From TrEMBL:
InterPro entries per record: Nucleoside_phosphorylase_d, Nucleoside_phosphorylase_sf, Uridine_phosphorylase_euk
Family indicated by similarity: Belongs to the PNP/UDP phosphorylase family.
Any GO BP: nucleotide catabolic process
Pfam families listed in its UniProt record: PNP_UDP_1
Molecular function as annotated in GO: uridine phosphorylase activity
UniProt name for this protein: Nucleoside phosphorylase domain-containing protein
Domain Nucleoside phosphorylase stretches: 57-281
Binding residues annotated for substrate, in chain numbering: 220, 222
Organism: Drosophila rubida
Amino acid sequence: ECNIHSLINKSCNMSKGVELKNPNLARMPSDYLYHLAINVANTADTSDIQRQFGDVKVLCMGGTPSRMRELARYLRNELGNSDNSEPVDLAEAGHRYALFKEGPVLCASHGVGSSTASVVLHELLKLLKYAKCQDPIIIRIGTCGGVGVAPGTVVVTKDAYNGYLRNEHEIPILGKRVVRPAQFPEQVIQDILRLSKRSDDGFDTIMANTMSSDCFYEGQGRIDGAVCDYDDAAKMEFLKEAHKLGIRNIEMEATMLSSLTLQAGVKAADICVTLVNRLNGDQVEITPETKKDYEHRPFLIVGRYIKALLGK
Ligand code: R2B
Ligand code: URA
């Protein structure tokens, strides 16, 4: 049984390397991070990994390789590096995810949904551990559907709810239902919010709860998927119930991300921009220009947070 307060305190008070809760890792002479195609040849002496990744303070994650490449370019600029070369994909040989490094920031893609995101998150957490990174933070930036907020609003997740509208992460492990806490540390959220003001940004950044589903369509109460056996009234009832729980956005990774990072004792945050207000419809119909503008909003927020964190 996990105690949420001890987990959150642990992840807030971290001032040392990443200690993962898996005793088997200490018994493995080597570890191949398969989907990243990164080989940790000698787990007893990871000096090569430490040289390459040891300075990492922030791991940014987001759905697509192209957006994470763009984020790497944006952060390079924000951090005052005038290098104009194309960011190098360090995980290219794995053919699954993209991984870029800009000084002390890693930018990794995670695909759509908890299952693809958890694969790369397990491997990245191990990478942070082998590299002996000190007190790193993991920040997902992404898109989502809004629940009763204007499209373009940025939501920083507090409590993550699953598709049953329960504030927990539920997964089958060894054939059993395992339920784990799914919250993000509030201190990090407050630090992020302190750096954001509507008057400067032209959009709202709010703290709220998030629902994560494993399915974009039925799992999010859409009626425009390939299959749907409920009506519009049932959908609206569900969305309103979510709204009553303080849920203001719906995406597909928050429960897994909050749960796994709590277990690992690593600070994390989830910053997503809403593309549609689900109380008004299901289709994401914004123009490519508006989408680009909206997708840039979490860049702004995360860039500012990273600069403050690094004292820049
Ligand atoms: C938000 O957007 C993606 C689905 O379109 C998914 O990764 C998510 O959480
Ligand atoms: N991503 C989601 O998961 N849901 C939406 O409605 C939009 C983006």
